[in-house]
Amino acid sequence: MLEGIFHVRFQSSLATVGEGYTVFDACGIHGANETHLFRGTQCSQNGVLVLDMEITHLCGEKYPSFGPLDRVHLDLTISEITQEGFRALGCVREQPAYKLHILGRRLGELVKREDGETCVNG
């Protein structure tokens, strides 16, 4: 499972379509930028890490690559995890022909309690 704070860049085959900051923890995926909210889940399926992410438009300019949709869902498979970050490949569920990948650069670790557990809500 991914755990930590990441800068993420959403890319199509043609260009970067958006970026933001995301926290991955045992509860899920949580993140945002100035115009969009990112959230979702991660799970292992047959030994492969799979991300199910929802991107919701909050205000300002929408990601033009996603069309007029206020909300899209990404189905992604992690293809690489390193100390520096990760790479995920997949598609937009509402537009399956629209392939994209996410590049995540690790910015930091999550705080651990004295008992070694990750702090979530205190």
Walk me through the structure.
The protein has strands at 4-11, 16-25, 28-32, 36-45, 48-57, 71-81, 85-92, 95-108. The protein is mainly beta. Strands 1-2-3-4-5-6-7-8 form an eight-stranded antiparallel beta barrel. Strand 7 (85-92) and strand 8 (95-108) form a beta hairpin. The protein is globular and about 45 Å long. It starts with a strand and ends in a 14-residue tail after the last strand. The relative contact order is 0.23.
How would you describe this structure in keywords?
8-stranded antiparallel β-barrel; 122 residues; globular; mainly beta; 62% strand; single chain
- The best one-word shape is globular
Residues in helix, %: under 10%
> Over all CA atoms, what is the radius of gyration?
14 Å
- The tally of strands reads 8
Which helices and strands, and how do they pair?
Blueprint: E1 4-11, E2 16-25, E3 28-32, E4 36-45, E5 48-57, E6 71-81, E7 85-92, E8 95-108
Antiparallel strand pairs: 1-2, 1-8, 2-3, 3-4, 4-5, 5-6, 6-7, 7-8
